[in-house]
């Protein structure tokens, strides 16, 4: 029963912190030569990690991430090298394994200084795949990542996963209100809500516009057109369904509040709005993406490739002439900060954020 409750809390209330164990955990029957996978103590992350490495013998070091996902926690200052160092020391990991290698999630790179971890613990850091499901292949291939393992996936599967978990917490108070006070409208409002949310998440990448809020206007226009056409077809007049128009508009705004930051490789509209209001931080929330772009200093670059290894959008490439790294797709950058954190030469800066 507790597992069911934990799953419901972790999936349907994903916006809320949900803390799991902070400990050195065993997957299978690990020994002193088994790999060490470091992650945050977000229950959904831990559950999916153990699911994806089922059948493997490994140590899982769960460090404190404030009970939120690794990407948001790393960018929001909740999951850094300090938490990793503390976890390594308090778990007495050095007494459990003969090697000195840690495999961290790729999306923890914005917050974890690999050099600091090595200096303070003696363990070197490798940033593994973006998705936990790729870890078995990554281990089988000698800890070598393919380009697909580096890339953040905003596919249809990802958007469907986000659809329910990110919008359930918005729908729930609506359902309670209409269920108690206007039960006759309950199913209509529910259908309208999930219809708008489903279509929006499905077509979001294909809508024109550089921000999520501009793309929202296309959905609003389509909604008004459909309701006007429905009212006209029913013979009640084009504006006869105006309550549904107003309600649908409110639902659309709620669904699109941070759609760009959730289902697309775009800067977060929600964070842009907070910045405009003078709010630079909201705990660990809304922090996996921010504003700005990367600036590269080629004179400092030593072509170590660490920026290419941790960039989730393949912004960087190696110049075939100079053999140095350069930003090939600077406009794709949403300034997560991973490249800057991992560059040992200080050749990268984030500007405009």
Characterization of this structure:
This protein is mainly α. It has 15 helices and 9 strands. A 3-stranded mixed sheet has the order 1-3-2, sandwiched between helices. A hairpin with a 6-residue loop joins strand 7 and strand 8. It is globular. About 3% of the residues have low confidence.
Radius of gyration: 23 Å
Compute the number of helices. 15
The side-by-side strand order for the widest beta sheet comes to 1-3-2
Number of strands: 9
| Unreliable parts | 283-291
Percentage of residues in strands: 5-15%
Task: Name the helix and strand elements from N-terminus to C-terminus, one letter apiece.
Answer: HEEHEHHEHEHHHHHHHHEHEEHE
Helix content: 40-55%
Distance between the termini: 45 Å
Largest sheet report = 3 strands, mixed
Structure class: mainly alpha
Mean pLDDT: 89
Shape: globular
Short description:
The chain has helices at residues 2-12, 43-52, 70-75, 81-90, 114-121, 135-140, 147-150, 156-181, 186-203, 212-233, 242-255, 259-263, 269-276, 306-310, 338-342, and strands spanning 24-27, 36-40, 58-63, 101-104, 124-127, 293-296, 316-318, 325-327, 348-351.
């Amino acid at each position: 029963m507790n597992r069911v409750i934990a799953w419901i809390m972790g999936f349907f209330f994903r916006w809320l912190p949900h803390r799991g164990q902070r400990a050195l955990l065993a997957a299978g029957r690990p020994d002193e030569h088994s790999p060490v996978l470091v992650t945050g103590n977000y229950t959904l992350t831990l559950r999916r990690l153990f699911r994806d490495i089922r059948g493997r013998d490994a140590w899982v070091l769960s460090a404190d991430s404030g009970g939120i996902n690794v990407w948001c926690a790393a960018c929001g200052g909740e999951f850094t090298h300090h938490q990793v160092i503390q976890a390594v020391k308090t778990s007495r990991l050095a007494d459990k394994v003969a090697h000195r290698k840690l495999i961290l999630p790729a999306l923890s790179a914005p917050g974890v200084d690999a050099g600091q971890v090595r200096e303070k613990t003696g363990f070197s850091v490798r940033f593994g795949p973006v998705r936990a499901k790729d870890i078995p292949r990554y281990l089988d291939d000698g800890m070598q990542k393919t380009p697909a393992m580096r890339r953040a996936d905003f596919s249809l599967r990802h958007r469907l996963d986000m659809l329910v978990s990110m919008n359930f917490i918005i729908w729930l108070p609506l359902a309670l209100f209409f269920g108690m006070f206007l039960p006759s409208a309950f199913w209509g409002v529910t259908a309208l809500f999930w219809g708008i949310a489903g279509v929006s998440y499905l077509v979001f990448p294909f809508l024109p516009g550089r921000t999520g809020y501009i793309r929202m206007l296309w959905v609003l226009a389509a909604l008004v057109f459909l309701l006007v056409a429905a009212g006209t077809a029913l013979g009640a007049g084009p504006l006869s369904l105006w309550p549904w128009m107003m309600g649908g508009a409110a639902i659309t705004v709620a669904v699109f509040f941070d759609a760009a930051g959730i289902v697309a490789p775009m800067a977060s509209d929600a964070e842009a709005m907070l910045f405009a209001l003078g709010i630079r931080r909201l705990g660990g929330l809304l922090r996996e993406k921010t504003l700005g772009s990367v600036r590269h200093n080629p004179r400092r670059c030593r072509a170590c490739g660490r920026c290419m290894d941790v960039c989730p959008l393949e912004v960087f490439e190696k110049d075939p002439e100079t053999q140095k790294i350069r930003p090939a797709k600077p406009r794709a950058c949403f300034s997560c900060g991973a490249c800057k954190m991992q560059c040992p030469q200080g050749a990268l800066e984030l500007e405009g954020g």
